Amino acid sequence: MDPLFNPVIRNDSEVIKEPIVKEMKKKLMDLDLRRSYFELEEVLDIKNLEKCKVEGQCRFDVTENEISYKLGETPLVIGPLSFAHMIVDSFLMSYYDGHAMENVAWGRIKNEEQWIILTQLMRESQNVIYNSTLLGRQLAKPLLEYLTSAFEEENPPKLTLLDGHDANLYSVLAALGVKEFWLPEQYESIPIAGKLVFQKLYDRIEKRYLLKLDFVYLTVDQIRSGSKISTKNPPRQFWRHTVMAPLPPGSGVGLALAWLGLWHGVTVGHPVTIAPAMVISFPEDQ
Description:
The chain is built from ten helices and eight strands. With 286 residues, the protein is an alpha+beta fold.
């Protein structure tokens, strides 16, 4: 994998590892996924599987999850949560691909409520692994450095598009201190074809640069139907009305500003000029 997009652990010293693993373990302990696990067991008809009948493994919530934190590797949760994540993800990909409902999870997912309950397993799995500012700074370090340097160029391109992975979007957001969020009309936090858009703006009145952050994504129905995106059927834009972070005078280091925890939001009520933009995309074909 290109080192720019490789979300691996770059520091396994105890002073860094201990608080990260401690935070991940606490998140696991605080989870209450009994309803989601039960729903998945019903969809799988687990009581009639050989694993249950012969080995007595009939429930997801009776086995402990473990944390894997190794230098040069992506952090992982190993155990029932990771297995549940993969199973639900396969159901969702079948649904996105437009398969008839009787061919998605054997036709046992009947409504939106079930999808919300089941996909909680995916959301919480990703939350445990990626939603840590300290860990995000490690996983996204090369990407954050690239973004910062791009905004500091004297004559940058008008648009820079980077095609990465969902792990890249998760880790960049975590590094910037963005907390867990819920996208309207979606079951996932980072759906396929999601795009994280950074815009460097110039405030002509205050004579200062600003950094604006948006998340652009497709709804569940747009992905499943494969409908053409247009002005009449636009992608959704999250954080459209978010406040913008002022950049230091003469600097384009908005990402470094946020990284250092100095993100102070300001609302701008007068004209701004759009300068270079940076888009990190999670393409549909990954």
